[in-house]
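Tutorial handout. Part one gives the primary structure; part two gives the three-dimensional structure as tokens.
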Amino acid sequence: MGMVLTMSLASCSVQQFTTTNIIDYSEFAKQGIFVSESNSVSFDYQPLGSVVSVTQGANSLFFMQKIDANKAFKEISAKVKSVGGNGLINFKYNVMAAKSSYLMTVTGMAIRIDNPPIVEESLPVVEKPKTDIHVDGIHCFIYKRFQSGIAVMTDGVLTVGQAKIVYKEFALKRIEYQFFLPNTKAPYMAITDNGYIVDYKTNEFIPLE
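Part two.
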């Protein structure tokens, strides 16, 4: 009887799985706040105080609601600015489940930088033209700049080969490219700052070169 129980338990083993999320910090750049996960930066700053922020997701009778990180980051930015800050270093982010909702904790140090190293986000291309090209008849233009890269609007879905042409023509190295279609909020493709093309439809990582 004991042998049967042992075999039964062994057959119910749980397979390994991995869940990966990437947290987008671009909302801070939109609000004019420099963010770094490092506690050591290469410029002078004035420390203003520690930041401890807790966001609780909305309650639901049927399922746990996700937290809107962008909304929380916007509110954190406003708080940093309210004490004269324009930067947040030693940034830490954690999300955990607690009873019927999620909790997100953000910590760091609010700082004041006299000459902040922030790439100011551009206005839409119709108001402030930026680099634009055509690749096989598809119009591609930079319509936003954010802290770690650029957003490229295309009027058609690019192939991997066409994305490589855009990367070569724009000649902006070691930054992230995000490709969007008009009237969409999520990118369909990206080029990472370490040399990979990410196809979000197929979840493929393709070497840039």
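Part three, for discussion. Residues 26-112 form a domain with the Translation Initiation Factor IF3 fold (CATH 3.30.110.70). The longest strand covers residues 87-98.
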